[in-house]
Amino acid sequence: MRKGVLGVVLAAAVVMGAGAGAGAVGPVAGPEADLAHHGHVSLWGGRLGVWLVSENHGPSDLSQATVRLAFSEPLAGGQGLPEACLWSSDRVVSCRTGALRAVGGGVGELALDLRTAGLPDELTVDITTVWMDGVTDRVPGNDRHRVLVLATGDPYVF
C-alpha cells in the first residue's frame, strides 16, 4: 500500500474509530473479533523502545486494524517509522496491524526505536485500537492500555 493511501486509510480510521462498534451493547450485526495488544515499552536517555504484538482471539478473521500509540511527551522530529506506520502528530504514531486470522492464526508485530524531544524522567503511552475494518470487538479492554514508563531502561509490560 502506498504511503498516500495509507494516510487516507489511517485518517479515516481515526475519524471513524470512535463509532458505535467501540463499545456496542446488544445484538451484533456483522463479524466479530477480539483484538488484543500486548508488549512492552522502555525509556532511557531520551530513547524510547516500543514492542507491540497484536492478536485476534476470534471468532472472525480481521483483514486490517489500526492501533494508535499516543505519548505524553513530544518525540523528536525527522525520525523514520516502519512502513506500516505514520506520524499523526509529534506525540502520536498510528500503525496498521496487517491481516489477523481468528483464534491464534497469526500475530502482528511492531517494533519502534524512537527518540524523545527532551530527556523526560517518565512518560505515559496510550495504546488504543482506532479502526477494525467494520469488525466489532465486544471485549475492547484488552486492546486499550495506558502504561507509565520511567526512564530506567526497564521494560514496562502491558
* Element pattern in H and E: HEEEEEEEEE
Strand content: 35-45%
Strand arrangement in the largest pleated sheet:
4-5-3-7-8
| Domain count | 1
CATH-defined superfamily: ntegrin, alpha v. Chain A, domain 3
Query: Which stretches of 5+ consecutive residues score pLDDT under 50?
Result: 1-25
Q: Largest sheet, described in full? A: 5 strands, antiparallel
Report helical residue fraction: under 10%
The coarse silhouette is elongated
- Count of helical regions: 1
CATH topology: Immunoglobulin-like
Supply the CATH class.
Answer: Mainly Beta
Q: What is the typical, i.e. mean, pLDDT?
A: 86
What would you say this structure looks like, in words?
The protein has one helix spanning 3-16; strands spanning 35-44, 47-56, 66-71, 85-89, 92-96, 107-115, 122-131, 144-150, 156-157. The protein has one helix and nine strands. β1 (35-44) and β2 form a beta hairpin. The longest helix is centred in the N-terminal third of the chain and has 14 residues, at 3-16. The strands form two sheets. Strands 4-5-3-7-8 form a five-stranded antiparallel beta sheet, with helices on one face. A four-stranded antiparallel beta sheet has the order 6-2-1-9, with no helix packed on it. The chain is mostly beta strands and 158 residues long. It has one domain: ntegrin, alpha v. Chain A, domain 3 (Immunoglobulin-like, Sandwich), CATH 2.60.40. The chain starts with a helix and ends with a strand. Helices cover 9% and strands 41% of the residues. The chain is elongated, with a radius of gyration of 16 Å.
